[in-house]
Amino acid sequence: MAVLDPDAPADRRPHNVTGAGNPAGPPRSAQSVPTQPLPAQPRPDDPAAAQPVAAQPVPAKPARPSVPLVQPTAVDRSIRIEPLVELEWKRAVEPTGPIGAARRPAHTRRAWIHRAPESQVVKLYDSTSAVVDELPAPWWLRALSAGRLQSRVGGFAVEDQVSDVLDARPGWMYMPWTGPGEDGYWEFVPPERATNTMVPTTIMLTDGHPGWLDVYLAHADNDVSAPVAITSLAELRARLPELERA
User: Fold this and answer.
1) Can you give the pLDDT at residue 75?
2) Which of 11, 30, 73, 244 has the most CB atoms at less than 10 Å from its CB?
């Protein structure tokens, strides 16, 4: 550093190292350094300053849907088929009105199977009985399906002829109180046996043989004997006195 000589002329004095005349410029500490402005601070009396800033949720990335592997399964006929065909058959045999007061089979012929085309009735019965066991159906329809009866009209004629024979004798009553599609039957209940606890002599229609009639003689509840097959209407007339004494 130069020593200042007070006696030296002014133009020979050394320049001030801190002055503006120093060609090196101001010292490093005096140079301007760019700075970032500070964020504005809320005033203490500002109501917004007292409110906490809620954290913004980060949206979750949607998960890719998983596609389950479908394994082929066998068709369960009892679940997918039988309920549908059973419902259709129930509608086919359901009478259109009450039949509890019927006194002859003709009074119970009020279902679809009695008035629809015969071929359609047999076709529905065949397709339904193929998947449903113990399908309720009248005797004449089972006989038609098996080829043992020529026509539905012929079956109706058998029922009417039996009714005519039994209506002419006292004590025989027609019982129509069976399930839809099932056959009614006749019971021999004369007044003198009204209080009898035995099951009365009963005549039932059947498709088991070409006579179409089976007779169950009077018996106790747990003592059912084999039915007596009636081979013709003439045999029924001839054996009625015997059957009524049983």
Assistant:
1) 47
2) 244
pLDDT score recorded for residue 37: 56
- Residue 34 has a pLDDT of 54
Residue type for 222, please?
N
Paired residues of 203 in beta bridges: 186, 215
189/173 Cα distance (integer angstroms) = 7
Task: Give the global pTM.
Answer: 0.66
What is the distance between the alpha carbons of residues 99 and 110, in angstroms, rounded to a whole number? 9
Q: CB–CB of 240/170 below 8 Å?
A: no
User: Cα separation of 151 and 147, whole Å?
Assistant: 9
Q: Write out pLDDT tens, residues 114-166.
A: 999 999 999 999 999 999 989 999 999 999 999 999 999 999 999 999 999 99
**List of the chain residues with pLDDT < 50:** 1, 3, 14-27, 29-31, 75, 77-78
Neighbouring C-beta atoms of residue 159, cutoff 10 Å = 21
